[in-house]
Predict the structure.
Amino acid sequence: MNRFLIPAAVFLALAAVLFIGVVHSPNKSTMQSTLLGKPAPSFTLPVLGDDTRKVASSELAGRPWVLNVWGSWCPGCADEHPLLIEVARENRVPIIGLNWRDDDVDALRWIEQRGDPYAVILADREGRTAIDFGVYGAPETFFIDAEGLVQYRHVGAMTREVWEREFVSRLPRGGLQ
Amino acid sequence: MIPELGHFALVLALILAGAQAFFGIAGAARNDARWLAVVRPAVAGQFVLVSASIGALVHAFVTFDFSVLYVASNSNSALPTFYRVAAVWGAHEGSLLLWGWILAAWTLAVAMASRNLPATFASRVMGVLGFVSFGFLLFTLATSNPFERLIPAAADGRDLNPVLQDPALAIHPPLLYMGYVGFAVAFAFACAAMLEGKLDAVWARWTRPWTTIAWGFLSVGIALGSWWAYYELGWGGYWFWDPVENASFMPWLIGTALIHSLAVTEKRGLFKSWTLLLAILAFSLSLLGTFLVRSGVLVSVHSFAADPTRGMFILAFLVVVIGGALALYAWRAPLLKSPAGFEATAREAFLLYNNILLVVAASFVFVGTLAPLIADAIGLPPLSIGPPYYTWLFPFVVLPLIGLVSIGIHAAWKRGRVGDSKRRLQISFALAVVLGLAVVYGVYGPGKWLTPVGFVLGIWVIFSSLIDPIDRLRRGLSLPRAVVGMTIAHIGLGVCAVAISAVETYTIERDVALAPGESLSLGRYAYRFDSIREIEGPNYDAVQAQFTVLRDGQPIAVLHPEKRFYWVQRAPMTEAGIATKWDVDLFAAISADLQGGRWSVRAQIRPLLNYVWLAAGLMALGGMLAASDRRYRTKDRTATEPAPAGTQAAAP
Amino acid sequence: MKRAALIITALLWGSSAFAIDITVLPDAALQERYENLTHEFRCMQCQNNSIADSPVGLASDLRRDVKELLLAGKTDDEIRAYMVQRYGDVILFRPPFKPRTAWVWIVPMIVFAGGLFVGYRIVRRRGALVANDDSSVDTATDEEERPK
């Protein structure tokens, strides 16, 4: 055929790539967690405000749970917090808070002002656990199933839509506690 | 009131651009003199209107009109006048208006300089430019209106990003856009030729100066950006292979290929369809760069605020303009074959090798920049590309390229007898080896294995470029500007090769915690931290340190790095302290107050760094000189194909 | 408001904030490895910075991890694996040569080879045409041509 059509064909392919890029740009695939389908990293962390109490990830095994990474310095966390309160009241799955690189006093005050949706808040002062989870920034929310595998990671403020579509849908029928 | 007038002027300009496009193309197709007569007035009118529009925006900035949203977002009552003007193009909306204005200015220049060209051809060129203008003005008005009002008006503005408050900022975007937009002229020439269905050596001669001038501006624009990043951003780096930097580098590489390909088309009527394709490609990459910066698909330090709507609009514009041009190409290019021949060592061959290597280099940058997008689009695992990718690949093309330049500039057309210049080439190569190795091992010390290669090849280009001019002068022959320009530009290339080899091998960088009174040693240099104090600027507070730099124990410079806190935007900013010696750049930056009187300090010794930017300046100067050569300014000849053998005299 | 937030974020990220990393490791070899490694990993919160140059908390945490891993005797490859395990290949500035990412390295090589091949073909064809070619060179524009 006409070999001079090759540039036009290559260009159209490029345009298609760019088109997909624009469509996808609000949520880039670089956000995909490498942990999907793999066991959640294990940790042992102190409870926020009470260093004598520690929680190990092994204690959470056997049922699904949600990890929410937040900090008092994080505006997006404030945005999603009312929804977390609401969702916690529905009591379908425990939400474990991971207080990331924060000051205990600031964090506790922040919770006091906004309410506490968490089954327990763990203090990751050095950020090691967050790194193990491959956290980019706050807020991020993970769904871990009953076998302890990470099934989903949401980056950014939680929305009702995402919660229903990605988190609630992964709960076993009947919604366990 | 004035912002509304500016807005209105832009709408009128849009209409005129449309008229320019329509009557330019349709008028030429119908060969209708009355329709064609509309075109130049439309060009002039569009220029006046866009000038009025950007003038209104400048006025809004200078008079602190914070009722205009764009002004409120990018200015402040404490902003000095100079930066108030520069702030016009400090963000997306205003920079688009600048694009449109520069395009109108280039089009006006084409209109004025094209009276010697056949009427239909000139009109088609202006018509295509009008089409591009129309698209940009429409984009500006529809999605990025800089005259949007803020009601109620802000009490004070949010200030111009402190990073942008710098003299180099004032010139970097305009120069860059002069380059990007200038390639639109080459593009328009190409489209006009395709529409006419005729492309000859004369077309190449018309196109060459415009392209070379645009290329020169782009070279300076890129170099300025690199220099600015070096002293303003405080990291001490000069090129980061950032997606937006790459977006300017790709058109530059293709533009370089284009100006060389045009030479072959002009001289021998060869590479016609290839030259057309390059002209389309150069401007396409300019447009692609515009897309990448403003659409949010790529993440970069340079990105303007991302907006998918804008991304879609530019993409649609890209498809229409580039797709259209490439369709024209597929239609016309098959007719452009030439029976001319040349040997493997002829000048044409060397220019072919030049083109191949430059296009391959551009493809490296292209793949690297768009890889994340491509991976995402076709479902491959996400990946990211950083500097190591490019620095590994580039030597494969750049080193052969530089080596071939030294030989190629002596090759004759058609039959490549390098002949008696062979001895001179060998001598110059030997000299380059001696000098290169002497500098590498004698002055600096062993580095990477590529270092002496870069030095030797760069020095060889410089020597080789001088052979012919010196020879001409000795024999009393004239030295046309085109030869001088070419020589200077190639010397620039050699200087660049040597400078980059030096910087990339012999830079010494240390990051340490220092307190006043302490010293840091870097090779034969030492940085002595003398003092630190607080100062106040026009719209910032700062902490200023003083360093004395010693070489072999002798003080050679005093540096004053600062850490500034701009009142309004509250972003801390590092101002590096830099001293430039003839053979080395001395760099210092301070960052964090580490308590106990200590500060984190970055010290860098950068040999020959300034020559990188000097080289770009040489290349641009060479280009401008060559473009101003007498033969481009003489009245157009009516001959189309190259004259038959034997009818022309030899050298002037 | 949302757009203003986007603009502010973009501007702040685009600001000149950078880090001077003054970490010192006990011996020079480790120090060099540390500096090389921290320049290899992308700061995931930034736009095109390495963790060596980034001022954000995540970057300093990752630098700390690199330092600790080095002191614990891990090899460079093990440290890279540690990062990739958590953040994926995107954290590497130099894309790995694995089956599904190798294309970024292979495609340029193919283009290069293709270019050389095309060049060879053209030179062959044009060389063959020289004998039949009596067209002149456009000597009116012969600045570059060597005087006879």
User: Anything to note?
Assistant: Chain B touches chain A at residues 273, 277, 280-281, 284, 291, 295-297, 306, 308, 311-312, 315, 318-319, 322-323, 326-327, 329-330, 333-334, 370, 372-374, 376-378, 382, 384 (CB under 8 Å). Strands of chain B lie at 508-514, 519-522, 525-536, 540-551, 554-559, 562-566, 572-575, 577-580, 584-593, 599-607. The radius of gyration of chain B is 26 Å.
